[in-house]
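Researcher: I'm preparing a figure for a lab meeting and need a structural model of a single chain. I don't have an experimental structure, so a prediction will have to do for now. The sequence is pasted below. Please return the structure as tokens so I can convert it later.
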Amino acid sequence: MGDPGPVTDSPQDLGKLDYEHARDELVTVVGKLEAGGLSLEESLALWERGEALAKICDRHLAGARERVETALAAAESADER
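Model: Understood. Here is the structure written out token by token.
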């Protein structure tokens, strides 16, 4: 059924992905898994890749949430002065 390989070349590339690229690749992985027709080994490899990509997205979102909360706290603190 063709190569279900990841968009990026190696596991080391995962750490370099920004949120948008990780999310886009995750969408691609999910689409391939939903389409079916893959061997068990290909499906497992894609699922593992998807899990890693989801964790990267979570980390980016957590960092963004923290930045927003810090900015809001700073704005509230400035308003109280």
